[in-house]
Design brief:
Two copies of one chain form a homodimer.
Chain A lengths: L1 E6 L3 E7 L5 E8 L4 H17 L10 E6 L2 E2 L5 E5 L4 E5 H9 L3 E5 H12 L5 E7 L3 E7 L2 E2 L30 H5 L1 H8 L6 H10 L3 H24 L4 E5 L7 H17 L1 H6 L5 E3 L6 H20 L2
Parallel strand pairs in A: 1-4, 4-8, 9-12, 12-13
Antiparallel strand pairs in A: 1-2, 2-3, 5-6, 6-7, 9-10, 10-11
Helix pairs in contact in A: 1-2, 3-10, 6-7, 7-8
């Protein structure tokens, strides 16, 4: 049995996965704020799988944790998990002694990529494109994450696709994230509300000019990210997930229209059939927690090898 | 001993490589035009390694061929090698019976990527960005080519980075290839000459306005391709080669200035140190022929396995 956690900015999703790869238990907890509270949430989530989901926690052999921050390669050290109030935290050191099994830590987008790949049948190649406050992708081929040389694999959000586009918080102009990131859209919209991107879609349908521009930029940015991923890494599929995809079919219709426009203009782009290669991760999918479980299990296997 | 050929639009470069990976013989021939002449060039080049470079051709165990066209995956079939006058040619079927050893065929940019990686020490990851009439890249990690799902891995030339940019021959606007491809620059320049891109650089230095725009677009397109490769595949290094790199340091100075401008604007881009991660393939490098030799040898090893 392996456990996987997706530690999100508001909720932590935990799953227990059996030897056949099936999810046999799942719980959700509110994520605590700051270093100690995040550590406590991880420990509580594993315990809750036993108490609330009937999982035999004594049979757990590894724990994997996906978390929205940078992970120092080969370590359990998380840095700049700003949405969790964590500047720096060694999650392996903080949790493994209590959990008593090997713990693996990975960036949440990369974990979700691995989980989405497994849920999708686990063959070929896939990019998982996370549309949240920011935009980043994880690339998986034949079950392995493309980790890259220096930790920026899949950072397509900061590719500029319009020199006259909106200023990105990174300092460049026209980044994919400046066009399509939830944070950028909320800032450009400038009106308070729990779901600014939904407000933008609604206002665009009522003819609001700014909302129409923002909605167009969102589709333009997402379509650009899809093209970048297919033309660079040539993945079979691009799966969209993250908070902005709560818009569901309204978002997908816009993205498909944008991809159709470039296919219309270009026989080469048409030959890529991008519209058939993009799909939405279903709402509530356990992809990130499942991927974290796979990462934890791999860390466990490494440990078993290292220790004979 | 393994032989590798780089069949170019005007010249064919052939190398013989010993078991230690050293190039022990090299010849260059003029490439013939059309299906039969290309086949004859391949056979003549292998023979010339014996007669002109003193290679013991009886000791050759495999031949690899890099060629500017699409290669049907897993076959020796070349299609759309327009610069060679070849619409379709099965190079394995056409040459293997005469050569008497396993023959492997690969797209020339992918072969050059593998060769540049080997010449560079053969560890980590690298993208080879070919700046010729068109623009495409090959991505290598730990000695393996990233082949992708459907044959478009590394096709960064058709990523649009400016919705108001020049029209690309693919039909889109502002593609990297429309900004920086030698073919596009020659067409936009519109004046005859053997090396239009050099004429553009010279004229830009004399203040010609169109030439300054074209020269700026070239650097802008190359820098965009470098950013795409690092932000998507996160390769350690991007090596530039192909006909346009004959401009050498004049081109590199422009590209570095362009990368420096985005580093100036963006702390994130600055952290990538892109200027230190870009370099030129030396003029006359045998990278493509060497990479072809490695591909041919791999095909030979597969054959040995398949036939016991």
């Amino acid at each position: 049995m392996k456990v996987g956690l997706d530690v999100g900015g508001t909720k932590t999703d935990a799953v227990a996965v059996d030897a056949a790869g099936e999810i046999v238990g799942r719980v959700r907890l509110t994520t605590g704020w700051g270093t100690d509270a995040v550590t406590a949430t991880v420990l509580a989530a594993v315990g809750a799988l036993g108490t609330d989901a009937g999982v035999d926690v004594a049979a757990v052999r590894s724990v994997g944790i996906g978390i929205p921050g940078q992970i120092e390669p080969g370590s359990g050290r998380v840095v700049h998990a700003v949405n969790l109030g964590v500047d720096e935290l060694d999650l392996v050191a903080a949790t493994q002694p209590t959990l008593g099994v090997p713990v693996g830590v990975e960036n949440d987008v990369k974990a979700a990529a691995l989980g989405a790949f497994a849920l999708h049948g686990g063959s070929g190649s896939m990019a998982y494109l996370n549309l949240g406050t920011g935009i980043a992708a994880g690339i998986v081929s034949e079950g392995s994450l493309w980790r890259g040389a220096r930790g920026t694999a899949g950072e397509v959000g900061h590719i500029s696709v319009d020199p006259n586009g909106p200023l990105c918080r990174c300092g460049q102009r026209g980044c994919i994230e400046a066009l399509a990131g939830g944070g950028s859209i909320a800032e450009r919209w400038g009106r308070p509300g729990p779901l600014p991107v939904r407000d933008v879609f609604d206002a665009a349908e009522h003819g609001d000019e700014l909302a129409r521009v923002l909605r167009g930029d969102l589709a333009r940015g997402v379509a650009a990210a899809v093209r970048v991923l297919v033309l660079t890494a040539d993945v079979d599929e691009v799966v969209l997930g993250g908070g902005v995809t709560a818009l569901g079919d309204r978002l997908m219709a816009d993205v498909r229209a944008e991809l159709a426009a470039s296919a219309e203009a270009s026989p080469f782009m048409r030959s890529l059939r991008l519209d058939e290669r993009v799909e939405l991760l279903p709402t509530g999918s356990p992809a990130a927690a499942l991927g974290a479980a796979l990462i934890g299990a791999a860390r466990g296997a490494e440990g078993a090898l290292a220790h004979g």
